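TICKET: design request
STATUS: open
ATTACHED STRUCTURE:
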């Protein structure tokens, strides 16, 4: 943990402060060699078996490992569709307007966001900061995965799912809530 700017024993979010979350997320990439070994071992144990990697939205680097091993890949969004669509749209729009209290959300001008609704790290993002760099890599992985599984139901969030489908038009999106 210390090598990643985290306190000793920080293996989960329970032992760190909110400003250290980005360090934990970035540190997860150090697991790539061990994960590559695990997936390769699964493929070697039964070369004809289907291997599928299902990752959290903050583990986009698992996509490259899956592709290298010839495994399929999906991402589970534990949030609902609307919240995820707003989140990803905001990050794609960084830097956000600094002087507007409320602004339309590209590419969804019918959605208005207030600066007071933003997390501190999103409000301060300039596109080159650690959060912006990390989240843009996750969004790029989401755009290339085999499927997005969203914690919702079509009947509950038709608008949110439509927004996600617009953002990630080449990726099948499945409500699984």
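STATUS: resolved
RESOLUTION: sequence designed for all positions
ATTACHED SEQUENCE:
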């Amino acid at each position: 943990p210390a090598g990643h700017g985290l306190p000793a024993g920080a293996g989960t979010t329970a032992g760190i402060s909110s400003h250290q979350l980005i360090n934990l997320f970035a540190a997860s990439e150090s697991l790539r060699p061990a994960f590559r070994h695990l997936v390769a071992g699964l493929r070697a144990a039964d070369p004809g078996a289907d291997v599928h990697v299902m990752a959290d939205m903050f583990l986009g680097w698992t996509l490259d490992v899956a592709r290298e091993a010839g495994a399929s890949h999906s991402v589970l969004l534990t949030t609902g569709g609307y919240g995820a669509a707003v989140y990803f749209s905001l990050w794609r729009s960084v830097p956000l307007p600094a002087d507007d209290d409320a602004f339309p959300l590209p590419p969804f001008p019918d959605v208005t966001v207030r600066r007071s609704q933003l997390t501190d790290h999103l409000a301060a993002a300039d596109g080159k900061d650690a959060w912006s760099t990390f989240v843009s890599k996750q969004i790029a992985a989401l755009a290339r995965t085999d499927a997005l599984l969203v914690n919702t139901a079509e009947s509950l969030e038709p608008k949110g799912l439509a927004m996600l489908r617009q953002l990630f038009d080449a990726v099948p999106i499945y409500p699984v809530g």
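CLOSING REMARK: The chain has a mean pLDDT of 92. The CA atoms of residues 63 and 73 lie 6 Å apart.
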